[in-house]
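User: Hi! Is it possible to get a structure for several chains at once, not just one? Here's what I have:
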Amino acid sequence: MSLDLLLLAALDGFSYAGLLFLVSLGLTLIFGVQGIINVAHGSLYAFGGYTAASLVIWALEKQAPTWVLLLALVLAALAVGAVLGGIIEIGLLRRVQDKDPVLQLLVTFAAFLMFEDLQRLIWGATPYSSSEVVAKLGNISVFGVTYTRYQLLLIPAVAIVCYLGLLFCLRRTRLGKQIVAVAHHREVATALGINTKRIGLITFVTGAFFGALGGAIAAPTTSLVPGVGTDMIVLSFSVVATAGLGQVTGALITALMIGLARSIAVYTAPEMEVAVPYLIMVAVLLVRPNGLFTVAQARRI
Amino acid sequence: MSRLLDLRLLTVAGSLLCLVLGLAFPWSKTPLIVGLCYGIAALGVAAMVRAGQVSFGHAMYACVAGYTVAFLARAWPQLDGMLLIMGGIGTSLIAGAVIGVFVVRYRGIFFGMLNLAFCMVLYSVIGKVYDVTGGTDGLRINRPTVLGIAFERDGFETALLIGTLGVAVVLGVLVQRYFQSASGEALAGIKTNETRLEYLGLSARKILWNGYVFSAGIVGVSGAMFALVQGLVTPDIGSWLRSGEFVFITILGGSGHAIGAFLGAAVFELVKLFAAAYMTGIWQLLLGATLIIVILVAPQGIVGLLLQKSAASKGGGGH
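Assistant: Yes, the chains can be modeled jointly so their relative placement is included. Here is the combined structure:
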């Protein structure tokens, strides 16, 4: 493997890690507060991607400038996060809140199944692409390797902004502190006068927005086909599980690790590409069963 | 007593119905066998649900068994169908034992998603290693002899139907026995309160591992049978959607009694036939909607409803 190729792989991995982190951030946030792994998170990614691609294609027909296209991506994610996230939280999760955790997981799985078909009904099976956005932002040269600005700068920047924004909200704002309190102990938080229902909805919609935003900013870089949601939910779960469920900063480091490993595999052993993230997860969980960044907790009997 | 009798009666009636249907309408043999295979697989998944664990990756054991059957049948074409099935079960048991060591350390979401991860790895590797597995085109399996008898297509299907039905009943009884055995009760104890189980001096991991290997073997049976009736294995046999369908059937039927898996499979096949005839393309939509309704209305599944009903009628009549 030549040095150029290694650099290219590193850049690929870096950009992909940004995406992966964004999606994982939503997943881990929802788990941290609600205690639910939202399998339908993959559908949010896919819906965000498709909606964004459709919006961009429509905007291009109207000869919209580049900043409008970028805005369209964010708007698509906001709409998908609010609408689908709201539907899932209010329509489904609230109804099973007191049931067996297994049933809660299955409800999101059922929602995922339904969204997969809905997505096919709405957008069909033909690939969707909106790569014009990437072309408009132009290229950048890093140590002699030419790379698109969109993938190298914009995607990681969006991920970092979301991460810092979330951290700021959680640590510095009233709402964020309420969210943290609910994550720590739901009952005590309720007793302290926090409206846990409202907090639950806000967290879920925020998490859903991150998932949809991942899809939306990924849309210009790939062509969307049915099944993208499945790959993403399993992959982002492997990030979240490797980092430790509910670990936001851990997810950032793990996403980088898995993103880089995956892209190196793409160049050196393409048939292993899909397996690499899971192999990392298995290896980590063998040594640290609760993930890399989880702190030990007292056992509840 | 009476409710057990009911379920036994239901088993006998259902088996007879399968046989009569299959013999009267030859076209119905394949859907019947496929339905029974799904039922058997759900039986395996149900064993895990008893322990409060849902695996989203059990189709990998059907996949392992199916491909073993294909490899064996291609390497030694003269091998008997029975031996092929045995081989399939064997490898799925081995795979279950190895992967089990790892996954039984986890509960709940981790358990489900780790199984899914293993399943996805297997699925994608099989799809990519074209030279060995034929990629997404899969591998053809020539019709083997069964117990030394070479069958024509129709005879082979009849033999498979009778065989699958027999296996389904035997496994159903076996699983029900297992549920009521000490080991099976301990398995259910993992769901109720694992810490107390450990205080009793039992190793929860060991119990779950036993159950896991057992369930992997059962799903393996279904995979081997399925491969034979299709005469073809493709990676789809191990797709996440297949695993999801197994879970669906298990929840729909209920894990309170072994017969639930087959009741669930019957409803599942009916919905599938219905969807194929009238609503192509929204199959998953129907599945998802049904699953949500079942979870909200009858979280114990069909079996739960049946048991509730018989308990209520018994209570009303006796007191």
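DSSP finds 13 helices and two strands in chain B. The longest strand of chain B covers residues 139-140.

User: Great, thank you!
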